[in-house]
Amino acid sequence: MTFLPSLLLAAAAVTNEPTLLVQPYVQPGPQPTLGATEEVKVVWVTEPTNAAFTLEYAPKGLKPIAAKVTRTEFDFLPPPPRALTPAEKEQHYVRFTASLPGLPMNGEYTYALRADGKVLAQNTAHTRRTADKPVRFVMVGDLADGKASQNVIAARVAQEKPDFLVALGDIVYPSGRSFHYFKHFWPTYVNATEVSEKAGAPLMATIPFYAVIGNHDAYVGKLSPTLPDAYAAYYFFCAPQNGPGEGPWNTVIPKSEEGTKFRRLAGEAYPALDFYSFDYGPAHITVLSNASTGKADDPKVAEWVAQDLKATKQPWKFVCFHAPPFQVTTSHYGDQRSRKLAPVFEANGVDVVFAGHVHNYQRSKPLRFAPNGAVVVVKPEDPKEAAKVEPSGAPKVPPSYVNGAFTIDEAYEVTGKVRPKGVIYVVEGGGGATLYKGTIDKNLSKLPNGGKDNYAPFNAKLYDALHSFSVIDLTPRRFQLRAINEKGEEIDRFAIEK
């Protein structure tokens, strides 16, 4: 059953009796590296209320501590008539964020939310592991499209008991709006009361989701009276504060009334959510925005990425962004700007690059890539084609090809090797949106110069039959990825050793 909260009312009545629209969920704190202690955030959302909330937390075996709670009120007018969505009513809700500092690493903690003395929610979670501990995490993108498969995937993920999840962009469809989080996302990942293929799983109550910005999350630069509640990922997710700062590489915020309101409501999440990194167990994970108006290929960003990767002492290095630079499906094949970062990844010891955007599972052979020129933006020959939009209403982005020389490690796995020569690129866009089929090798004639210097037989695995996600088990010396479909079947497995 679709969950559509009563916040979508023409007039919001402020009450003392709180109604939780989004149950409490955990988010990462501001510290990117591992220390003796860390800070965690707990977030929940209610209808407009004057209720007095308290949140107490406690490391295992210690007395509860009162958390500092901040309140932010959200009010959005509906899109104008004949806009992208059916007629809507106004949105009125309140987001509460509690800060939980001083939590020891490798430990459990409990948190309890109360209103006027009544317990509304209580959960037990755990803090980050230190670099000497094994961890399990999930990579999956293109999540909440309002279809039944997303609930199945959430239930399967819960069965794997991960420590955290990286959402590889396009977190909610069709346009990353607050409206669609309440309609498609929260029912599956937070408000589900049980783990089931029909309901989903309340994963976020106990494990953090690290957000990656995708083109639907930032809606290809649209924030306007038509979409006043767009860019809602910045309202609901937190991130470490260690990126390159604000610049032309970030999601573009218009100089308008909507843009001013967005900055006020997003707070420190913008621009932090676009570019950041964090450590978890033996992993160092660098998150980049390379879809919509995010420009991960900007020279300043490339410099920050190199410095970030060089500075870490973690044994494993991973990069996450939304649009994959190397993939073989026809859809989105031309989204290649991030290929320019391949030499940076190779020079700084990146092991695996993860992306979504393409709605299936793919794994490349270990590869190295040397770009040989500038980005070639190909404009549609037909002006009518250029004016077309995606099903979400977002304008299509012209293909941007990056040509260069490929060096592929053909011996990896064939000879039983576990030390690849090159970077492995994984696409995991099977979280719930409509699957993509059709490979580019059958359409090389449509590429500039027939695909010369742009395409190579680098693909090791392609799976597009069912939705899927990837589970990574990591120790200081060994990486193993298992790709699992919605039936619980293993569709791929590979390992790397140090």
Characteristic terms for this protein:
498 residues; alpha+beta; seven-stranded mixed beta sheet; six-stranded mixed beta sheet; 8 helices; 13% helix
Can you tell me about this structure?
The protein has a seven-stranded mixed beta sheet with strand order 12-13-14-15-21-16-22, covered by helices on one side. The protein contains eight helices and 25 strands. The protein has 498 residues and is α+β, with helices and mostly antiparallel strands.
Quick overview:
The protein has eight helices and 25 strands. It is an alpha+beta fold and 498 residues long. The longest helix has 13 residues, at 148-160.
Uncertain residue segments: 1-12
Helix content: 10-25%
The largest sheet has its strands arranged as 12-13-14-15-21-16-22
Q: Shape from CA axes?
A: globular
Total DSSP helices: 8
Structural class: alpha+beta
| CA(first)-CA(last) distance | 47 Å
Which value, in Å, is the CA radius of gyration? 22 Å
Beta-strand proportion:
25-35%
Number of strands: 25
Query: pLDDT average, as an integer?
Result: 92
User: Could you give a short account of the major beta sheet?
Assistant: 7 strands, mixed
Strand and helix map with partners:
Blueprint: E1 20-28, E2 37-46, E3 53-59, E4 65-66, E5 68-76, E6 91-104, E7 108-115, E8 118-126, E9 135-140, H1 148-160, E10 164-167, H2 178-189, E11 209-211, H3 233-236, H4 257-266, H5 269-272, E12 276-280, E13 283-287, H6 299-311, E14 316-320, H7 342-347, E15 352-355, E16 361-364, E17 367-371, E18 376-377, H8 383-387, E19 400-401, E20 404-408, E21 424-428, E22 459-463, E23 468-474, E24 478-485, E25 490-497
Parallel strand pairs: 9-10, 10-11, 13-14, 14-15, 15-21
Antiparallel strand pairs: 1-2, 2-6, 3-4, 3-7, 5-6, 7-8, 9-23, 12-13, 16-21, 16-22, 17-20, 18-19, 23-24, 24-25
